[in-house]
């Protein structure tokens, strides 16, 4: 049996036990998904102009921030529903119920049976939109930036659309693939926040072609986002689309510092109305430093070997919200943009 099928069976049993053991708590959404095509909605019935958001949560320390992010996103007119995929089975359901706005009809909590990163992409039958955003629990996206990203995806539905770029590259001296950042090109978008077609969730989770690569993700506890970039490049072929929009905040980035130390308290000031202090700890995978980058280079090499091809391709530009003239003119004794209003 496909190892994802076994994981799914455990998923259903664990969810049943979890809800049965918490009879006094608010009921959890029922998960009845499988990898059978018949369990998935007809693509023609999917809502074309709205968005479902899958937020991966693990650390109880981030619950105050997660609550504020959810409340902000749920107020966006294009957001149809939000699923919180909670991957820490040891977290008490009572804590989640009291910390998250589960009374809102568009918000659903899905407690996962394990911390497998592959479950970030499980194709929930309850997803009724074609566009799906996959998000970390510590990234805030202003409404105007989310609207812009969604409009770009609608024009590029075979692509990944996101805000956080990385690259693969060939180290010629060692004759091997590496994971890096280039100032002038990119080939990978991170799942900190990205938008993709719902169909790619099914391809990632259910195709036998990616079973061994998923096993590698579970073994390394890393690289599910790189694998999704491989899947999209193979299945859809669209180049990744990088969005340059203001106000995106990654609260979990270790470069958030106060007085030279990683900040325990972050304060947001964006157009979502978030302005309260929220506790954020250095708990993400990327906080592991150089070891994290080496591991991700190893993943690229392993996926190349397992899949028999290197489908990642570079894109060289980014989509900018708003158009301004590039030429400079002298106005009032100063060189300024020619469309500058004095």
From TrEMBL:
Signal peptide region: 1-23
MF-aspect GO terms: glycosyltransferase activity
Keyword terms: Disulfide bond, Signal, Transferase
Stretches assigned to the Glycosyl transferase domain: 52-319
Keyword Transferase assigned: yes
Protein name, entry field: Glycosyl transferase 64 domain-containing protein
One CC-aspect GO term: membrane
Family stated for the protein in its record: Belongs to the glycosyltransferase 64 family.
Domain of life where this protein originates: Eukaryota
Organism: Rhynchospora breviuscula
InterPro entries the UniProt entry points to: GT64, GT64_dom, Nucleotide-diphossugar_trans
